Each structure stands twice: as structure tokens, then as C-alpha cells.
Amino acid sequence: MLLGAALLLRVCGAVLGAGHPHALLAFTGRGLCLLAGWIAACILGAWCPLWVGIVVGLAGEIVGLGVNNRAYRYAVEGLVIAAAGLFSVPPLPVWRIALAVLFVLAAGILIDRWVARAPASARWGSLFFVLMAGGALIYIKREDLLQLADFLKNNPAKFWNVSVTRQFPERRIVLDTGAVAWIERPALKRTPYGALFFHGANPDGSHQSTAVVVKRALLNAGVAVLSVDHPGYGESPSPPLKMDLSAWDPLPTALSALEELRRQPGVEKIIVVGHSMGSDEALRLLSVHPAVHGVLLLGAALSESAENNDYWNRRFLKDRRIREPFPLDWVQKIQSEFYDTRRILEKLSPQHPPILFVRFGREHPNIAASRDVLLHALPGRKRVIDLPESTHYLNSGKFSSLILGEAALARHLSSEITENFGDFDSAAPLLAKETD
């Protein structure tokens, strides 16, 4: 979809901007060409706010007012792509930026050469064809676009701050328990540390939009990330329905993932990261295996009681895509045994590693109601970070295979991780800002 949109915009831009006598149309055409360049950078993995492309493009146009040299236009397009790659979270390696530049310039040169040689009727005919093709693309992807419109309407991020990208390439790992995990390493800045990430309650598992934002923030801090698909989520299978209660325990998968991360080359120390449901998983792992450097909890709260909670009992089955009949009393037993935050806290030692507790300003009411209770119940060292303009999903959404959100928010979270965990050599930076 991004590729099609980029090419259609480039054709429109070439037709309108190729020496058109009306300055407004010509300027619009050049703007479409620059927007196509920003989208091309997104295709190759950049996650950069739209305003960066707008500012760089406008600056180039203002500096080059009255310049009709095509080479200058291509240079401005290249600068937009390079800026998108460098402002990306995390920044793209040079070869990816170069690939995006070559892709756009090659397509642009071919399109511009055709436009320059074609008669006016052919130009306007091609514009009509592109508009029809664009309409077809909108019709085919109308559900995604309606979701996108709803996302922009209800999300605190303004359109110029919205960033779009696809997934970074990951290496798939099958753990000893049969669950699936994904390993990603930062392309540029690297530290000798790894993060074990547990996602929230979304069937997409490690590939839900919030997980992608958190992983990008960690990668931007130079941390290798092993994200685990919780049993029944993502590509991890659910236990066979007729197995005994212990088969539904997610802890063996967490321990297996921890050992897998320890075996990764260059990983010397580990932080454990959990979002929403994954926060319980992180705390449970900490209660039995405290030998990690630190813990990052995002959107954490006390779990709701499984007794007489029909919504969460049915949600348990829906999220894990369980279609066969499954007794609800068994669901309650599983939730009480393995997903009860209060029981997890009872086993947590006050000597645990420091915890960074992230609260969202635009939180779900049920989570906001109990998160501070959880915070005060946590023993030992901890500190709060507030993100007042963030939703529970870190201002992100997923549409088809694309991730939308605020790269600036991910960069801010990345800086908080770096500041609070310092150089990962001691707990001192966190201890100095400990919450009462």
C-alpha cells in the first residue's frame, strides 16, 4: 500500500510540477514529490514524524525559489529521505537511507523523462489515470483508511506528528517450551545489554503496535530486544485444552526466554520490560529470578478478580483464539493461579532490582483506578515516569501491516530509559530519584 501510494504521488507530482505555468499547482506538484520521498523512507523502515519531511522540503523549496534545475529538485528529495532516516526511531543505517534515495530518484527520473517528452494530453490523461488508480486503492483499503481516520480523530497526536512504518526485520526463535520469540538488534548504537519484553493482551502478540513502539524505544537506546509471544498469542500456540493446570503456566516460557537472551552474543546484563498484561509476567519472573539489572513496567495495574468476571473470562478465550468449548471455571482457576497480581506481589522480595514505573495520562479508567495501588504495594526500589499525553497504547495503532504512532513519544521513552538506567553499570541513577 505504501509503495503504491508513493508511486502514485510521484506521478501526480511530476505532472503538476513539470514547469506548470500556475505557481500554486507547480508548488503542489513538488510537495507531492517530496511526500513520496518521505513515504519511500517509511517503506524501508524509517519511523519519522511527517513534520520533518515538511520542514526540510519547505526549506529546500525556499532556498531554491526560481530554480528549475532538475538536479536541485532531486537533491531536495534526497535530503527529505535522508532526514527521515536520521530522525527515525531508531535511526536507519546509511545503506537503508541510500537504498531509499536510489529508489525514489530512479523512479523520479524515469517518470520525469516520460512527462518531459509526452504531449500535454498524455500528461493530463496520466493524471486522470492516477486519480482513478488512487480511488481504487482507497476503495480496496477503505476499511484500513476508515480505521486510520478514526485513529487520527481520537488520538492526541496531530497529523504532522504521526509516523508510519512497517516492521523491522526480526529473527524468529522457537523456545524450549514451543513458544515463539523474536530477536532484534540495534543497527547503529549498541550497548552490551538486552531487554526481555513481554507484550500486552492483544492477539498480535509481539507485533501489536504498542509492542513495536516499546521495542523501537529500546533499540534507539542501543539495547538488543527479545520479545516473547505469550502462550496463545502471536505465533505461540496455546496449551492443549485437556492438559492439567500446570500446562497453562506462562512462567516456564518466560524463564526459557531469559536463558535464550543470556545466550545471545554480546548480551551481558538484562532488563525486563512488561506492558499491561506483560507487567504481571515481568513481576512474576522477577519474583523467582531477581538476577536482572532492572525492570521497566508500562501501563501496569492490579489484575481484576477472575471470580464472577464474565468479561475477562471470555476475553481470556477470545485473545488466545480458543474456539473449542472450555469450562469457564477452568479459566478462573488459570487466571487466579497465574495472573493474580496480588499473589505475585506476595512473593516479590524487597531486594529486587530497581523498577521504573511508567504511567500514561490518557489511561483506561479501570487501569488508572488501581495502578497507584500497585505502585505503593511494590516493595523495594522504584521510580515513576509520567507520560501525560500518552494513551495506554503509546499513541499507536496498527493498520494492515503498517504501524502508526508518534516517533517523538518513542524517542522520549528511549531517553527516559537511558537516563534512569544510566550506563547500566549501577543502580545509582535510579536510586537517586527513587519514589517515596
CATH architecture of the largest domain: 3-Layer(aba) Sandwich
How are the strands ordered across the major sheet?
A: 2-3-5-4-6-7-8-9
The amount of helix comes to 40-55%
Question: Which regions have little confidence, pLDDT < 50, spanning 5+ residues?
Answer: 423-436
- Given the C-alpha coordinates, what overall shape results? elongated
| Helix-strand makeup class | alpha/beta
Helix and strand pattern: HHHHHHHEEEEHEHEHEHHHEHEEEHH
Amino- and carboxy-terminal Cα gap: 50 Å
CATH class of the largest domain: Alpha Beta
| Most strands sheet | 8 strands, mixed
Report what the structure shows:
By secondary structure, this protein is of the alpha/beta class. It folds into two domains: 139 residues, no CATH class; 268 residues, Alpha/Beta hydrolase fold, catalytic domain (Rossmann fold), CATH 3.40.50. It contains 16 helices and eleven strands. An eight-stranded mixed sheet has the order 2-3-5-4-6-7-8-9, with helices on both faces. A three-stranded antiparallel sheet has the order 1-11-10, sandwiched between helices. A hairpin with a 2-residue loop joins strand 10 and strand 11. Helix 4 runs antiparallel to helix 5. It is elongated and about 75 Å long. The C terminus is likely disordered.
